[in-house]
Amino acid sequence: MSSELREFFREFRAMGTDVAFWLWHKDEQRAERALAYAERFFHQTEARLSRFRPSTELSRLNRQAGRPFNASPMLYELVKSALDWRTRTVGIFDPTILNALIGAGYDRSFDQIAVGADAQILAHTDRQPLPAESQSRGPDADGIRLGPGRQIHLPAGVGLDLGGIAKGWTIQQAAYRLGALGPALVDAGGDVACVGSPPDGPWTVSVADPLSPAQDIAYLPLSNRAVATSSRARRRWIHDGQSAHHLIDPRTGAPAQTNILSATVVAPHLPDAEIHAKTALILGEQAGLAYLNRLSDISALLVLADGSQRTSGSFKEDGYVPHTSNFGERFRIPA
Fold it and tell me: Alpha-carbon distance 261 to 209, whole Å?
C-alpha cells in the first residue's frame, strides 16, 4: 500500500445523466471497492425511486393512491422531507406535480423523449411554455398523510415525483460514503457534492453558461459544500405544438413562466441547494432573489433570459465570475 494519497476516478450513467466519482486514497483495492459500492448505491436508489419504471417502490406507491402504503425507510424519509420542503417553500417546491409533468409531456425519461431539431433550438430561445389553462393541478394534495409504521396515504388521484430531491440526496449520500475514506467529490449532471479537499487545495467546479454550454461562466472552490443548478435551457421539448420544460410551477400546474434561465446555488448539503435553486427559478428574478437573500449559509448565481446575471450572498467573493472579482488571481484556473 502506498503511503501517498492517490486520485481514483469512476464514471457511469444513472438517473438519466452522466455520473462521476473522484476519491483520494492510499490503497487502490480499497478505493476501487468503495467506488464500485457507491455506483451500486446509485443504481439501487434509482431502482427504488424512479417514476419511469413501473416496478419501483415509488411507482407502486403512486398506483396505490387512495389506499395506505407501507413504505421502506428510504422512501418514507424522502417523502417526509419533500413534504417538509413543500411547507417551507410555501408550495413552490411540490412533490405532487406528477400529473402536471405527465400532462406537459414528461411521461418518460428525458432520454426517451423525441426532441428533434426544433426542440434543440428551444434551448437558446425564450418562446412561451404551455399555457396555464392547458394544465390541471388535479386534486388537493394537502390530504397526504404519514402514519405509524412508515405508512403513506396519498389521496386518490395524487401522484408523487421525487426527482427534485432524490437525485440530490443520492449524490450527497454517495459523497459521504466515499468521503469516509478520503477527499471525495460526486458529480451527476453538474450537481456536485464534495467531502474534504484534495492534497493541492479545494475542488474547483465550473458552472456552464446556459446559453452556450461549452463555455463556463463561473468557477467555484469547494470543500465540504455542494452546488446545484436548475435550468430550463436543457430539458425542453415540443408538446402539442408548444414549448414545454420540466420545471412545473405548482401554482399553475404548467411549466414555469419565469425570466430566470438558470439558477446555481452553493449550500452545505446538495438536497438543500437543489430545492433552493428550483424554487428561485420558478419564482422569477425579483421574488427569487428575495427568497435567496433571506437564506443563510448559501450563495447563488442567476442567469436571466437576456444573458444578464444576478448574484446572492457571497457568490462573487467565494468564486470567480468573469469581470466581477479577483478569483483568477487567487486560484489557478485551467486554461
Answer: 10
Q: For residues 213 and 330, give the distance between their C-alpha atoms in angstroms, rounded to a whole number.
A: 25
Contact assessment for residue 6 and residue 179, using Cβ atoms and an 8 Å cutoff: no
3-state secondary structure of 334: coil
User: Across-strand partners of 95?
Assistant: none
Closest CA to 49 of 92, 8, 98: 98
Tell me how far apart the alpha carbons of residues 176 and 184 are, in angstroms, rounded to a whole number: 8
- pLDDT of the residue at 332: 39
Pairwise CA distance, residues 303 & 209, whole Å: 8
Measured distance between the N- and C-terminal CA atoms of the chain, rounded to whole angstroms:
34
Measured from the Cβ of residue 6, the count of other Cβ atoms closer than 10 Å reads 14
Q: Are 276 and 89 spatial neighbours (Cβ–Cβ below 8 Å)?
A: no
What are the pLDDT digits (tens) for 272-323? 999 999 999 999 999 999 999 999 999 999 999 999 999 999 998 888 766 5
Domains in the chain, CATH or no CATH each:
64-164+197-330 (3.10.520.10)
Q: How far apart are CA 24 and CA 199, in angstroms?
A: 8
Q: For the chain, percent helix, then strand, then coil, each to nearest 5?
A: 35, 30, 40
By the 8 A CB rule, do 18 and 188 touch? yes
Q: Tell me the H-state helices in 123-198.
A: 163-179
Helix, strand or coil, per DSSP, at residue 58:
helix
Contact assessment for residue 297 and residue 267, using Cβ atoms and an 8 Å cutoff:
yes
